[in-house]
Specification:
513 residues; alpha+beta; 18 helices; globular; binds 2-acetamido-2-deoxy-beta-D-glucopyranose; catalytic activity; signal
């Protein structure tokens, strides 16, 4: 909820273009119900803004929404799709333009939703919702152009501040920076608040750039794009940054190594700061795993060798190495990326597969290289549950299946159970708060029709009538939810139903009344 208060202040700083002066602030709009309600028993609100107030128009997205009406038979489930799938385009494309010093360099400032800042992780995932509809297209009004704009702006951000997780509008947009209402960060290396909104170093933020790049490349084969702007430089920065975080806490003679990144904040919440003067808990040397100070929930790690982000980074570093190889004159860098990816995979196998008394061999969530293991999963992606969704391993992988059974049981300390919704949560929203995002990933990672139907039933029945995917919902009380405007989770739900259309059309023909 803190995030919401923060964004109220942030939103007030944005100068609305005059054409949209009459448009309601979606922060408020998304908290009220709007007619016409869906015709099922949940009577879900219509949540799309008026056409004139939408932040990006795409005819292929509109066609897809219409097509799905005949596929999704349940009226409430269809309404949820209709509201959620276009949410990032409807509400979050805060600015789209070109770089001041290169009119061919497209830029897209894509905000997370209720906070007027662009997260590397969220924006990569927000774009991924539309990936099935992306084809090579040089038009400035295409989804491909939106993608290129996000890649170019992320490259700029990474070059400016590789340890930061969320960023301010580019100067070209004329939109002023938002103020982060939390206690100012005390961190090294310093970054201007005109550039970064927050500087929590999260390995998955850098992996997100590799994922975003891979997604665009595989959909379009547009290799020239990767040659023309700052993509190669951004990759070099990512490699240098992650390699600087391979080190342990102590050198071989016992001296304390200097860390390239430290972060502290005055706070009452342990997940909002790092102990040992901003350096975190000790990490063993030479594991081959990359440290992450924070998780994708923006909460600090307990053990910095955060496994889901290492999986994601390894998987997308390898696919990005293929882009690098095709660029032409970057063979050595491409080989280096491929090799680095393989070494991380080997390190995960060596350090993160642990023996659980009930489930046998499973993946640990976090380790420290000294033998300490954190056995749990958190809802945010990358999670252990999402490992096949990320393409790191096959869904039928034995260790994954053991891990999945543990995650979706009372033996995962952050699996929330109750009459409203049963799903993984996490410390970010707290005890009892289940995250629909984790239910969506559960659907993506199973072939069991009954498991899919149960998850869809819980999702469609727990929106408190608002017809949007919330960040978290109390597993005993559907009225207690967090974040009414969380674009990533909404897009992900749309992406999930498109995936079901291809994989399990029968489930979409079912009733959820
Ligand atoms: C989207 O289309 C509507 C008309 O249907 C228009 O009023 C609006 O300005 C368009 N939005 C953008 C960002 O171009
Ligand atoms: C263009 O401007 C951006 C942002 O100010 C900067 O990061 C980039 O290096 C510049 N590019 C060139 C080619 O000068
Ligand atoms: C490219 O995108 C534009 C805008 O969405 C669309 O009108 C056009 O049909 C697309 N072209 C191709 C070849 O898909
Ligand atoms: C201990 O190792 C560190 C890092 O290799 C080195 O900088 C330092 O000089 C060494 N100190 C001693 C006393 O050997
Ligand atoms: C990476 O390169 C090193 C040095 O050439 C080699 O010994 C190692 O086997 C490679 N690792 C992987 C996983 O490819």
């Amino acid at each position: 909820m803190k995030d919401i208060i923060l964004s109220l202040v942030a939103a007030a700083l944005v100068i609305a273009p005059s054409a949209r002066a009459q448009c309601p602030d979606y922060l408020d709009y998304s908290q009220q119900k709007h007619q016409p309600y869906s015709s099922g028993k949940y009577q879900l609100s219509y949540m799309r803004p008026e056409p004139a107030c939408r932040t990006f128009n795409s005819s292929i997205v509109e066609d897809t929404i219409k097509d799905m009406e005949s596929v999704i038979k349940d009226p409430d489930l269809y309404r949820l799709f209709q509201n959620s799938f276009p949410n990032s385009l409807d509400t979050a494309v805060k600015w789209k333009g070109v770089a001041a010093n290169n009119s061919n360099e497209e830029l897209t400032f894509l905000i997370t939703g209720d906070i007027n800042a662009m997260w590397l992780r969220d924006s990569a995932n927000q774009m991924q919702s539309y990936l099935p509809l992306v084809t090579a297209n040089s038009s400035l009004s295409s989804l491909a152009s939106l993608y290129r704009g996000v890649i170019n702006l992320q490259a700029r951000y990474i070059l400016e501040a590789p340890f930061c997780n969320s960023f301010q509008p580019p100067v070209e947009s004329g939109i002023g920076p938002s103020k982060n209402q939390d206690t100012p960060d005390d961190f090294t290396p310093a970054v201007s608040t005109n550039i970064a909104f927050e500087c929590k170093y999260e390995l998955d933020s850098l992996a997100a750039f590799l994922e975003l790049s891979t997604d665009y490349y595989e959909a379009t084969n547009d290799i020239d794009f990767f040659r023309n702007f700052q993509w190669v430089d951004a990759i070099n920065t990512i490699i240098a940054t992650t390699e600087s975080l391979l080190g342990g806490t102590y050198s071989s003679n016992g001296s304390v190594n200097t860390l390239p990144y430290t972060w502290q904040r005055t706070t009452t919440s342990a997940t909002e700061t790092l102990d040992n003067s901003g350096r975190g808990n000790p990490v063993q040397a030479n594991t081959g795993l990359i440290r992450s100070a924070f998780r994708p929930s923006d909460d600090s790690t307990i053990y910095q060798l955060y496994i889901p982000a290492n999986m994601m980074f390894s998987r997308y570093l390898d696919s990005a190495s293929k882009i690098m190889a095709n660029i032409g004159n970057q063979r050595n860098l491409a080989n280096h990326m491929h090799n680095f990816s393989g070494r991380i995979r080997d390190a995960i196998t060596k350090h993160a597969i642990v023996n659980h008394p009930t489930y046998g061999s499973i993946y640990a969530f976090e380790v420290d290289g000294y033998g300490s293991q954190n056995i749990m999963d958190d809802a945010n992606i990358p999670s252990l549950l999402s490992a096949p969704f990320l393409g790191y391993l096959d869904q039928n992988d034995k260790v994954y299946q053991n891990t999945r059974k543990m995650i979706l049981s009372k033996d995962n300390s952050y699996f929330m159970r109750g009459p409203v919704i049963n799903a993984v949560g996490g410390p970010h929203a707290g005890y009892g708060q289940a995250w629909p995002m984790a239910s969506i990933i559960r659907i993506f990672t199973t072939n069991d029709d009954q498991e899919i139907r149960n998850a869809l039933q819980e999702i469609v029945s727990s929106t408190d009538g608002l017809g949007l995917i919330h960040e978290s919902i109390n597993s005993f009380d559907a009225h207690k939810w967090t974040r009414q405007w969380f674009s990533w989770a909404n897009g992900l739900f749309g992406q999930c139903l498109l995936d079901l259309k291809a994989r399990k059309p029968g489930v979409l023909g079912a009733s959820f009344q």
